[in-house]
Specification:
The complex is a heterodimer of chains A (80) and B (212). Chain A is mainly α. Chain A has one domain. Helices cover 72% and strands 0% of the residues of chain A. Chain A contains 4 helices and no strands. With 212 residues, chain B is an all-alpha fold. Chain B folds into 2 domains: 87 residues, Rna Polymerase Sigma Factor, Chain: A (Orthogonal Bundle); 98 residues, Arc Repressor Mutant, subunit A. Chain B has 10 helices and no strands. The longest helix of chain B is centred in the C-terminal third of the chain and has 25 residues. Chain B is elongated, with a radius of gyration of 21 Å. Classes of the chains: A mainly alpha (80), B mainly alpha (212). Bound molecules: zinc ion.
Chain lengths: 80, 212
């Protein structure tokens, strides 16, 4: 039988599809009857989706702009 | 100084490579325009925002020095990104932040303190009021709290999380970029995710950011 601790420790392996059929079965069986682990697993998935949605610095369409291109090029010319 | 209009000839990769080998200014400007974004994102994923700039600049210098030796076994872009990853890893090692996994395991008990001796939840997860990322990210405080937490993660954890979740690389690609085995990447990813889980949980309960 898996404990709740086992569930939390193997959550990433399950999410990444790195577990065997047998361990998937006992994992989801535990979730069926344990509401805390169900909650943890649901909220872990939410955490991951939230990280994925975090806006990144400098990921806009306008990057790099002309000033940035000038800056990188000038430094490159100095270095060489 | 104003950048000259970029000639269309460089949309062809062969022409672009030839131009870079000739050290033609327009070719470099075109390449910078094309690749600076992905290069910066990759470097930032590995070494963090603060020194990503220097890493990318070093990478451009390497590109300039070795473009004549480029064998064209891959696209120009992935060749350049390999150079960025190598520069970043060298930098990571130089910074001598926790590069060994042992150093990571001691300070970070994951969720372990939350379970009782029988392995059941002693301190169960609280129920969040949000069920979508948009709801969580609607407060700027949590957004900046998560940014700060990620930037404070131990180096390899932060790199793994950024590459996997924010840059969208697969587990396998992350292993190759960071030179870490797959099982270790999974451990790093798991720790980073749990850290952020706890930060969100704490924020849901108290409205405060804990970056401990
Ligand atoms: Zn449970």
């Amino acid at each position: 039988m898996l404990t709740c601790k086992d569930i939390s420790e193997t959550a990433t392996d399950h999410l990444e599809g790195k577990t065997s059929f047998a361990s998937r079965l006992s994992f989801y069986l535990h979730l069926l009857y344990c509401k805390y682990c169900r909650r943890y697993y649901r909220q872990m998935k939410l955490t991951i989706r939230t990280i994925q949605k975090l806006p990144e610095a400098k990921d806009s369409e306008e990057f790099p702009d002309d000033a940035e291109i000038d800056r990188v090029f000038e430094k490159l010319r100095e270095q060489s | 100084m104003n950048s000259p209009t970029i000639p269309n000839e460089y949309t062809s990769e062969d022409n672009l490579i030839a131009g870079l080998i000739r050290q033609d200014e327009a070719a470099f400007r075109f390449a910078i325009k094309q690749y600076q974004g992905p290069m910066f994102a990759l470097a930032q994923g590995i070494v963090g925002m603060k020194i990503a700039d220097e890493v990318v600049q070093e990478a451009w210098f390497s590109v300039m020095k070795s473009i004549a030796k480029f064998q064209r076994r891959s696209t120009l872009k992935s060749w350049i990104l390999t150079i960025v990853a190598n520069e970043a890893k060298t930098r990571l090692r130089k910074e001598k932040r926790e590069v060994s996994l042992e150093a990571l395991s001691s300070d970070d008990p994951d969720m372990q303190s939350r379970f009782d001796d029988s392995g059941h939840w002693g301190q169960p997860p609280s129920d969040w009021q949000a069920d979508a990322p948009e709801a969580l990210l609607s407060t700027d405080q949590l957004k900046s709290c998560l940014d700060r937490t990620i930037s404070l993660l131990p180096a390899l954890q932060g790199a793994t999380l950024n590459l996997k979740e924010r840059q969208g690389y697969s587990l396998n690609q992350v292993c190759n970029i960071l030179d870490v085995s797959e099982s270790n990447v999974r451990v790093l990813l798991h720790r980073a995710r749990n850290r952020l889980y706890k930060v969100i949980e704490h924020f849901q309960e108290t409205g405060e950011c804990c970056t401990e």
